[in-house]
Design goal:
Elements (H helix, E strand, L loop, with lengths): L10 H9 L30 H4 L2 H7 L55 H5 L13
Length: 135
């Protein structure tokens, strides 16, 4: 049996309520797949579960980015030669990593390490078909 609802509902809550009935053996949500007004050229887009979780298609309908926005990320684990990154990464020319000195005078010694998410914000053409899991 399939049950449909008008409007916004929490599918997990509905399934939980249905499972409380002795007449229901199991209940699971069936997820809809939405077509985007914008289609990324990443061949793995359908396997990236977080896309809908963070409502990225709605964001893409508003904007796909602005080259005038500068994002600062400090990360030492970057593939600087990657074609999606190499022309889009700014490095601090005043900082020399791993020398134990505050080269740039900001009060922090060797402040170059961050999280491994740099690829998510610097890629061109939404990965340009190149995807590499790094976690």
């Amino acid at each position: 049996m399939e049950v449909y609802f008008d409007g916004e509902v929490d599918p997990y809550e509905i399934c939980k309520e249905l499972m409380e009935s002795p007449d229901i053996e199991y209940a699971v949500p069936v997820y809809k797949r939405f077509l985007y007004d914008f289609t990324p050229n990443d061949p793995n887009i359908s396997s990236q579960w977080f896309i809908n979780n963070i409502q990225l298609p709605k964001a893409w309908d508003i904007t796909k980015g602005d080259k005038n926005v500068v994002i600062a990320i400090v990360d030492s684990g970057v593939d600087w030669e990657h074609p999606d990154l190499s022309g889009n990464i700014w490095t601090n020319p005043k900082e020399i990593p791993n020398n134990g000195v505050d080269d740039d005078g900001n009060g922090k010694v060797d402040d170059y390490h961050g999280w491994d998410f740099v690829g998510n914000v610097t890629t061109q053409d939404l990965m340009n078909g190149q995807y590499r899991e790094d976690n």
